[in-house]
Amino acid sequence: MTVIETAFTPWASLIGGLLIGFATVLLMLVRGNVFGATGVLAGFMTPSSSSDWAWRATLIAGMLTGPFAILLFTGGFPVIEVPMSRLAMIVGGFIVGIGVTYGSGCTSGHGVCGLARLSPRSIAATATFMLFSFITVYVIRHVIGG
C-alpha cells in the first residue's frame, strides 16, 4: 500500500496566505471586485469592457509568472509533487468545474472573500467544500487505500 504524506509547510503557507489576503483586499479597494480565481478567468474569456479585461489579464499574468519570480529569488523553480495520477487530476478538475458552476463560485471567491464579508451563501458553500474535502481525503487514504 502506498502512503501519501502531507507536507507541512507553515512558513510558505503563512506567506502565501498573507499575499492572497493582501491581493484580495487590494483588488476590493482599487476595483471593487471580489477575488475569485474562476470568476477572474471567466471574465477574462468574456470581458465586459477593455478595462475589465486588462486587470484580469494582469492578474493572470502574475499567477503565471510567479514561479519565475521564485526562480529569481531562490535560484530554483518551486518543487511541486502531486501524489495522484494525471487521470485522477483530470477527473478531479472536471468535478471541481461542475462544483464551481453549480456553486456560483470557487474556493477563493467563497472561502477568502465571501467569508471575510460574512456572506451566508459563502459560509454554506465553504462548509460544503470542506466537508466533501474531508470525505474525499478519508475515502482515498483509508477506504481505497491510496
From TrEMBL:
Query: Which family does the entry's similarity section mention?
Result: Belongs to the TsuA/YedE (TC 9.B.102) family.
User: Pfam families in the record, alphabetically?
Assistant: Sulf_transp
Q: What is the topology of this protein in the membrane according to its UniProt annotation?
A: Multi-pass membrane protein
Instruction: Report keywords, A-Z.
Output: Cell inner membrane, Cell membrane, Membrane, Transmembrane, Transmembrane helix, Transport
Q: Give the protein's recorded name.
A: YeeE/YedE family protein
| Stored InterPro entries | Sulf_transp_TsuA/YedE
Q: Where in the cell is it found?
A: Cell inner membrane
- Chain ranges passing through the membrane: 12-33, 53-73, 85-103, 123-140
Q: Looking at the keywords, is Membrane present? A: yes
